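Task 17 of the worksheet. Students: predict the tertiary structure of the chain below and write it out as structure tokens. Keep your answer in the requested format; marks are given for formatting as well as content.
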Amino acid sequence: MKYRHVFHAGNFADVMKHVVLTATLMRLTAKDRPLFVLDTHAGRGRYEIGGRGGEALQGIARLEAARPAAAHPALSRYLEVVRGMNPAGSLESYPGSPLIAATLLRPNDRAAFCELLPTEAEALRHEFRRDARIGVHCRDGFEALGALLPPAEKRGLALIDPPYEEQEVDFARVSDALVAAAERWPQGVLMAWYPIKQGAVAARLHRRLLDAGVKRLLVTELCIHPDDSRAGLNGSGLVTINPPWQLDNDLRQLLPVLHGSLAEGGAGRTRVAMLAEE
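Model answer:
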């Protein structure tokens, strides 16, 4: 059974990932030069979350109910995108990372969104059928990293976000893909999402990257349960190679706000750390 994101759309891990993505793209678009964005596991771009079930109640719905003060422009911008999809006020739809990225890109920027499942890729293609900046590829995202990088623009971001159906296999694949992409595109910002079910597994990903000699490695984590909880998904993280200037400071402001809104009783933790410098 192939992973389908619709049940998880808008959960706490999505919120964290998309706020970080927003902050990263806001930093990148602060410079005039055009950029390229590659999303390797893009999904369908838009998810209906208004029905029964799903995990958005513990994610975006909880964040909206908390009404956090506008602690940072990236949080405000992210919420603008979500609210723009729900003009009636109630949360019915939630944007995937392609829609968030496309909203933040400028007219001279470009993006490639990759999705392996044909039905999801077709939905994504329909979503961007009138946007000449966007190319939708029904292809393996890991293969696309080798085929589409480095881009002509030289600047930009690659987001790797596999489903982790085989956790150990995918962790190894992600670390190998990051190392290879960093060699191929040394000036690119490379970001990979990962689940935190047991803290030691994520630590092995960090160690693989450090042992491979990766420079400028930023780790961002948000957990809403203790690391050793049996809740299933205790938290999620992102590793970023070549983070934009000041992104780490942005995230040190943002993560406590998200944790305060999403973690019941203050459980869990946040982490923003540069594990490797130049």
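Marker's comment: The chain has a mean pLDDT of 92. The two ends are 42 Å apart (CA to CA).
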